[in-house]
């Protein structure tokens, strides 16, 4: 579906149509149109060695109306904090 508002709850049902007419409706499905997650806290340092670092983080405080299924972790370029 297009033209939905992010974070808004919608209810859907389906009809089948042929030349004899329209069927009875399906059962309803209520879902949210997802928005972007927000409220990410800073990552937390766990441990490191010469070539690696371990960090952890909490999930966002707002998931956007749908479950978060992945995370993207970026690091700066050579410790400059200017190019990611």
Describe what this molecule looks like in 3D.
The protein has 84 residues and is mainly β. The chain contains no helices and six strands. It has strands at 9-12, 17-18, 21-22, 29-32, 44-48, 53-56. The protein has a two-stranded antiparallel sheet with strand order 1-4. Strands 2-3 form a two-stranded antiparallel ribbon. A hairpin with a 4-residue loop joins strand 5 and strand 6 (53-56). 0% of the residues are buried.
CA-based shape: rod-shaped
Tell me the major beta sheet.
2 strands, antiparallel
The percent range for helix content is under 10%
- Termini separation (Å)? 35 Å
Count of runs of 4 or more consecutive helical residues: 0
- The secondary structure category is mainly beta
H/E element string? EEEEEE
- Biggest sheet, strands in spatial order? 1-4
Beta-strand residue percentage = 25-35%
| Rg (C-alpha, Å) | 22 Å
Please, what is the average pLDDT?
A: 90
Please report the total strand number as a whole number: 6
Low-confidence stretches: none
């Amino acid at each position: 579906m297009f033209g939905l508002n992010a974070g808004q709850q919608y209810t859907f049902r389906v009809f089948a149509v042929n030349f004899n007419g329209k069927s009875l409706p399906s059962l309803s499905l209520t879902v949210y149109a997802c928005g972007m997650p927000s409220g990410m806290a800073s990552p937390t340092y766990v441990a490191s060695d010469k070539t690696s670092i371990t960090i952890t983080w909490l999930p966002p405080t707002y998931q956007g109306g749908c479950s978060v299924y992945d995370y993207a972790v970026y690091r700066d370029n050579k410790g400059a904090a200017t190019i990611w």
